[in-house]
Amino acid sequence: MCDILSTPLTSVNQPAYEMGKVSASILIDMINGVPQKEDRVELKSSLHIRKSVAPPKTNL
């Protein structure tokens, strides 16, 4: 969708399928009384830089 806008927006791509898979696994473990090893799960995301960003201004 971001590619077809008049100004292509920079966006972050999050791994939705993997997020659901990990969430379901954690939920099933919780239902079965399995203690959680971690309080936080981090999944890799990617930044897609498009034309809505510019280099920082320099102070002259």
TrEMBL record:
Domain of life: Bacteria
Transcriptional regulator LacI/GalR-like sensor domain segment(s): 3-53
Organism: Paenibacillus cisolokensis
Keywords: DNA-binding, Transcription, Transcription regulation
Matches recorded under InterPro entries: LacI/GalR-like_sensor, Peripla_BP_I
Name of the molecule in the record: Transcriptional regulator LacI/GalR-like sensor domain-containing protein
Entries under SUPFAM superfamilies matching the protein: Periplasmic binding protein-like I
